[in-house]
């Protein structure tokens, strides 16, 4: 009886500990190959991608299983994509840290199906919006890792039925697996959208026009 009581006690304690913290998953930085349009050169611009640390979302939206932390992974993925299109690309946490940048690149993500990633290019001295470039993608349901841990989670559900006090620990573990499965399908879509935006940015007439005076100044200095 004492052993059973001790087991239940520690189970309740574990439940309380598990319930006190929320599962967080950080978006992994994706490597994106250069996506400049054929025949185009890098635009002679210094870009600072804003990695807002507060850019997160709950997933699922109406029943929080975990919190997806987008930065710095999102900003660094865009940096990887933009390096083929702009002369210099850096990542900063806030606009005030972007000293010397010609343009700020501020990303936003709309959660939908398909998702929509938008990057707004802003001139930091006047705060004028120079261009806004978007791309849409759905999560990749066939990506490696999308179906990982399903058998394990079924076993964990069964364990809760047999031993209810384990519910807190089991729930947290399943939430971690849910987060891993979501990111397995989410991260390739982010990389694809970043590549699309980089390609469109290389052809955007507003960005090309913004860079033109710098081209002329460089020629005049020769």
Proportion of residues in β-strands: 15-25%
| Overall CATH architecture | 3-Layer(aba) Sandwich
Rounded average pLDDT: 82
Give the class from helix and strand content and strand pairing.
Answer: alpha/beta
Uncertain segments: 1-20, 215-222
Query: What is the number of helices?
Result: 5
Order of helices and strands: HEEEEHEEEEHHH
Overview in brief:
This protein is an alpha/beta fold. The chain contains five helices and eight strands, in the order αββββαββββααα. The chain has helices at residues 2-19, 73-82, 150-162, 167-203, 205-220; strands at 24-26, 43-50, 56-59, 66-69, 86-92, 103-110, 115-123, 128-137.
What does this entry look like structurally?
This protein is α/β, with parallel strands linked by helices and 222 residues long. It has one domain: 3-Layer(aba) Sandwich (Rossmann fold). Helix content is 42%, strand content 24%. It contains five helices and eight strands; from the N terminus they run H-E-E-E-E-H-E-E-E-E-H-H-H. It has helices at residues 2-19, 73-82, 150-162, 167-203, 205-220, and strands at residues 24-26, 43-50, 56-59, 66-69, 86-92, 103-110, 115-123, 128-137. The chain has a five-stranded mixed beta sheet with strand order 5-2-6-7-8, with helices on both faces. A three-stranded mixed beta sheet has the order 1-4-3, with helices on one face. Strand 6 and strand 7 (115-123) form a beta hairpin. Helix 1 (2-19) runs parallel beside helix 4 (167-203). The longest helix is centred in the C-terminal third of the chain and has 37 residues, at 167-203. The radius of gyration is 23 Å and the shape is elongated.
């Amino acid at each position: 009886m004492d052993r059973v009581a001790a087991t239940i006690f520690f189970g309740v304690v574990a439940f309380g500990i598990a319930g006190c913290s929320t599962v967080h998953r950080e978006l992994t930085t994706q490597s994106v190959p250069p996506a400049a349009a054929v025949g185009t050169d890098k635009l002679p611009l210094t870009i600072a991608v804003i990695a807002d640390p507060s850019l997160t979302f709950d997933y699922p939206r109406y029943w929080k299983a975990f919190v997806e932390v987008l930065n710095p992974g999102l900003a660094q993925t865009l940096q990887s994509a933009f390096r083929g299109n702009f002369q210099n690309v850096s990542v900063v946490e806030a606009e005030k840290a972007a000293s010397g940048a010609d343009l700020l690149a501020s990303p936003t993500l709309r959660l939908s199906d398909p998702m929509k990633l938008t990057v707004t290019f802003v001139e930091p001295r006047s705060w004028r919006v120079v261009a806004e470039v978007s791309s849409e993608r759905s999560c990749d349901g066939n990506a490696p890792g999308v179906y990982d841990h399903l058998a394990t989670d079924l076993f964990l559900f069964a364990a809760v039925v047999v031993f209810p006090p384990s519910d807190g620990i089991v729930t947290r573990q399943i939430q971690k697996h849910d987060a891993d499965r979501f990111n397995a399908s989410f991260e390739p879509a982010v990389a694809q959208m970043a590549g699309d935006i980089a390609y469109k940015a290389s052809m955007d007439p507003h960005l090309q026009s913004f860079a033109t005076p710098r081209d002329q100044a460089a020629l005049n200095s020769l």
